[in-house]
């Protein structure tokens, strides 16, 4: 079998790096594209790194060169602030255009489980727009919608920037009423790399598979549904933290996560549980 070439735009990010590692493990030739090439010590051995800004005025040309010889382009870029989030829309348009011009056979875009049920949240509207840009493009496209990554919860439970005041008063703040089915990025990467094999590739496991080859949406979530309160307790135990889990309302995102939209019993694809992930990553917390 000839070796496939996979280009991962955003390949230096959390999910992108996992996709790079998984594709290399399967024997693909892999190129990671992002604005900054990481120092050698932080590169995945065997991957090629290319610097290109998907928002630069000449982005379609830069990206077309970066996509040279690619069978599949995977879009795992991210931007959280309104200015940075343009990479999800204007950036996606340049990626789709460059993929067409480079003769790429398939784009795969990483999105969010049930994102179409979260349109009250600006970021989710942007993610939906990103999906549509790829699916309206000339190149066949597969969307992989993933549940929240295990890492996502550190932003709330441990982050001094987002929930600083609450963590300082001795709590582990969690979203009151929230229900999740978190997934490990290594499981997300398996699904993305399966999907990257072709428009009608088999994604091996318990997934929701909608649409048709070329305009397909695959949804994946973790192995267990778990209440936000239990996630916070597991987090505090694993970190040896004496802070007390306390449920708080979360403006904007709260209704989505409390409505059951963040779980998918028909897409129990992931193998790694939150407890498994904590056992691997948690470090003792000072408080
Ligand atoms: N976190 C979750 O729980 C979750 C769940 C489901 C889906 N997702 C989706 O997964 C995707 C990846 O998320 P992540 O957390 O892995 O993101 P991340 O760690 O923030 O990585 C973002 C990547 O995009 C690159 N990038 C940003 N702006 C760029 C630009 N203008 N041009 C080229 N590259 C650019 C970054 O590298 P440089 O900064 O060097 O450019 C980096 O490689 C997102 O679209 C997110 O919506 C996340």
TrEMBL record:
Span of domain NmrA-like: 3-202
One Pfam family here: NmrA
Gene3D superfamilies: NAD(P)-binding Rossmann-like Domain
GO molecular function: protein-containing complex binding
Protein name as annotated: Epimerase
The species this protein was found in: Cellulomonas biazotea
């Amino acid at each position: 079998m000839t070796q496939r070439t996979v280009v991962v735009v955003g390949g230096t990010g959390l999910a992108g790096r996992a996709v790079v590692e998984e594709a290399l493990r399967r024997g693909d030739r892999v190129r990671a594209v992002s604005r900054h090439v990481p120092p050698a010590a932080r590169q995945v051995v065997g991957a090629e790194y290319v610097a290109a800004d998907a928002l630069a005025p000449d982005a379609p040309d830069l990206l077309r060169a970066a996509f040279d010889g690619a069978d599949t382009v995977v879009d795992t870029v991210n931007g959280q602030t309104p200015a940075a989030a343009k990479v999800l829309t204007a950036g996606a348009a340049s990626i789709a255009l460059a993929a067409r011009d480079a003769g790429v056979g398939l784009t795969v875009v990483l999105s969010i489980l049930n994102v179409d049920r979260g349109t009250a949240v600006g970021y989710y509207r942007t993610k939906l727009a990103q999906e549509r840009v790829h699916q309206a493009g000339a190149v066949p496209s597969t969307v992989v919608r993933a549940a929240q990554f295990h890492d996502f919860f550190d932003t709330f439970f441990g982050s001094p920037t987002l929930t600083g005041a609450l963590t300082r008063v001795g709590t582990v703040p969690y979203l009151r009423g929230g229900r999740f089915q978190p997934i490990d990025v290594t499981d997300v990467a398996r699904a993305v790399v399966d999907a990257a094999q072709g428009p009608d590739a088999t994604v091996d496991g318990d997934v929701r598979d909608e649409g048709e080859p070329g305009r397909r949406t695959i949804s994946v979530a973790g192995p267990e549904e778990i209440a936000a309160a239990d996630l916070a307790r597991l987090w505090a135990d694993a970190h040896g933290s004496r802070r007390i889990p306390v449920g708080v309302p979360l403006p904007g995102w709260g209704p989505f996560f409390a409505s059951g939209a963040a779980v998918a019993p028909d897409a129990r694809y992931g193998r790694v549980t939150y407890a498994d992930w904590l056992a691997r990553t948690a470090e003792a917390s000072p408080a």
